[in-house]
Amino acid sequence: MAYERNGVGAGMKALMDEMPDYPHADVTKYRDFALQRQAALLDVPERTKCDRRAAQLRQEGNRLYLERQYGDALERYNESICFAERDSDQLGMGFANRSAIYCEQGEFEYALANIALAKAHHYPEKLMPKLLARELSCRAKLDAGQSKGTVPNPRMDVNVNANPKIPFVADGAGMKLYKQFGRGLIAERDFQVGDIILDEKPTLVTNGLGYRYTNCANCSTGFNHSLLPCPGCVSYMYCSEECLQRDKRFVHRFECGMAEKLRNAMFCSEDQLDQFKVLHKAGVH
Question: Domain MYND-type, which positions (predicted)?
Answer without folding.
Answer: 216-256
